[in-house]
Amino acid sequence: xxxxxxxxxxxxxxxxxxxxxxxxxxxxxxxxxxxxxxxxxxxxxxxxxxxxxxxxxxxxxxxxxxxxxxxxxxxxxxxxxxxxxxxxxxxxxxxxxxxxxxxxxxxxxxxxxxxxxxxxxxxxxxxxxxxxxxxxxxxxxxxxxxxxxxxxxxxxxxxxxxxxxxxxxxxxxxxxxxxxxxxxxxxxxxxxxxxxxxxxxxxxxxxxxxxxxxxxxxxxxxxxxxxxxxxxxxxxxxxxxxxxxxxxxxxxxxxxxxxxxxxxxxxxxxxxxxxxxxxxxxxxxxxxxxxxxxxxxxxxxxxxxxxxxxxxxxxxxxxxxxxxxxxxxxxxxx
Length: 334
Ligand code: TYM
Hints:
The protein is mainly α. It has helices at residues 15-30, 44-47, 54-70, 88-97, 102-106, 109-115, 124-138, 152-168, 215-223, 243-256, 260-267, 272-297, 301-330, and strands at residues 2-7, 37-42, 79-82, 144-147, 178-181.
C-alpha cells in the first residue's frame, strides 16, 4: 500500500479538510503494515496558481505542517514534506504535460469554478493544476489517495494520464491510483449555506470551523449555523430535503465515529436549540486538543521545519526511480 495525499497551504485548515481528508490520512497511517508507505505533503507549488502573498506562503506551510502533526500524522511513520522541496513533482509534471489533453483539463469542474467567467485572465498554472496533481501521486506509484469528494475528478484524470502514458510509450510504468473518499464525510458543507461546500476561500469565516478556532468561536459558529425550525427526524432519508440539518448531523456522526442512524437514534425529536450545543461540545472535545498541540508545536517552528526537511529527503529518494523511468520512457535519458 502506497498512500499519498496533499493539501494546499493556503489559509486555515478547516473541519471539512479534517473530516474529509486528514482523519483518513491518520487512520491509514495507523493501519500501515510492514512495506507500506504513507506520504503527505503541503502542496505549495499548487498554491502558486492563485494570487498569494509570498511572505505568507512559507509561514502557512509550516503552520499547516504543525496542524497535520497535531492531528496525528507521525513523522516517524509517515513521510511529511512540502512539494517544492521535491523537484520530481515539477519534472514529472512537465513530462505528463505532453500526455494530458487540453480537452480533459477543460472538463475539470475545479478549473471551471475557480476560473469563473474570466478564463482568459486565469493563470496557466490553474489550468494545468491537475497535471501537477497527477505527478504528485504517480511519482510515488500511489495505490491509495485519501481525499474529499471534490478531488475525485482530479484523481480520475490522473488515472487517464497514467493509462495514456503507459500505452503511448509501451511501458508498464505507472500504477493507477485509487481515490479513497471518506464514507462518513465526503463533503462537509458551509455552516451558512447547505448548498456550498465548506471552504477556506469562503469570505465568511462563520461558514467554517477552523482547526485553530478557540472554543468560544466553535460554539458561536455552530449556534449561528443556518438550520430549519423542525426537530431532527428518526429516519435519515427525511434529511434529504434538509441540507443544513443533514450537514450538522453528518458532522456530529463523523466527529463521534458513529453512523448517521446512530446519531438520529439518540437525538431524534430534538430541536436545534438542544442539538447545536451538543454538537459544539463534541467538536470542542475533539478539536480543542489538536489546536492546543498545534500551538505548542508552533512554539518551535524550526523543529517543524526540520521534520519537513527530513521528509523531503525521503520523498526525493522514493520518487527518483519513477522519475528516471519516465525520463527513459520518453527518451530524455540516453
Ligand atoms: P485542498 O487543499 O483544497 O483540500 C485538502 C483535502 O481536504 C478535502 N476537502 C474536503 N473534504 C470534505 N469536505 C470539504 N468541505 C472539503 N474541503 C476540502 C479535499 O478534498 C482534499 O482531500 N488539489 C488538492 C491538493 C492536492 C492533492 C494532490 C490531493 C495537490 N496534489 C495529490 C491529493 C493528491 C486540494 O486543493 O486540496
